[in-house]
Amino acid sequence: MDSTQEVFLFEKLRQRYGLMRLILGVFFMLGGVGAFYLFGQVHTLTCERTQGRQNCHMDISWMGVLPLQSTNIPPLQSAWVRESSCDTEGCVYQVILRTTGGDIPFGIGPSSGTQSKEEMAQKIEAFLKDSSQPTLEVKTGGGLWILLPLVFLVVGLWLSVYPLLSILFPAEKEP
């Protein structure tokens, strides 16, 4: 494709089919894909006791299916819920894992609501106090939040594909 054909295609998009609609659609799609990736992350803490030693690792996967990262962490000492950044709409909270190597935040980041986070911290604490419990698995993330980015992705596709289809399959012949 030479430069005159590229200019013609660009002008045709801009004048007849709405270049702004195409650009807006691409931004919606990119935002949807990015949020789809972030909201789909599942963080899993797994600990095992073998011969009195505690072996823990934190895995990050996309929707529990596609592995993204796996990290060995030092032995756990405790778990607690940290409150941070309060404003007029409330506070956000995050589970913190206290290890022999320092504090490690668990999950993608702070979020509202304390009940589920308190339950996670209590489950971890119960594992630490009960030496007869051989394994621990705690998950956070994923879930129905994945539907919100899906809306952005579908709207972006609709906004950007329509102008391109109109060029490829015109309804009427141009004079």
* Count of distinct strands: 7
- How do the helices and strands follow one another from N- to C-terminus? HHEEEEEEHEH
* Global morphology: elongated
Radius of gyration: 24 Å
Number of domains: 2
> Helix content range of the residues, please?
40-55%
Mean pLDDT: 84
Judged by helices, strands and strand pairing, the structural class is alpha+beta
Number of separate helices: 4
Model description:
The chain is an alpha+beta fold and 175 residues long. It has two domains: 3-36 and 149-168; 41-141, no CATH class. The chain has four helices and seven strands. It has a four-stranded antiparallel beta sheet with strand order 3-2-1-7. The chain has a three-stranded antiparallel beta sheet with strand order 4-5-6, with helices on one face. α1 crosses α2 and α2 runs antiparallel to α4. The chain starts with a helix and ends in a 7-residue tail after the last helix. 16% of the residues are buried.
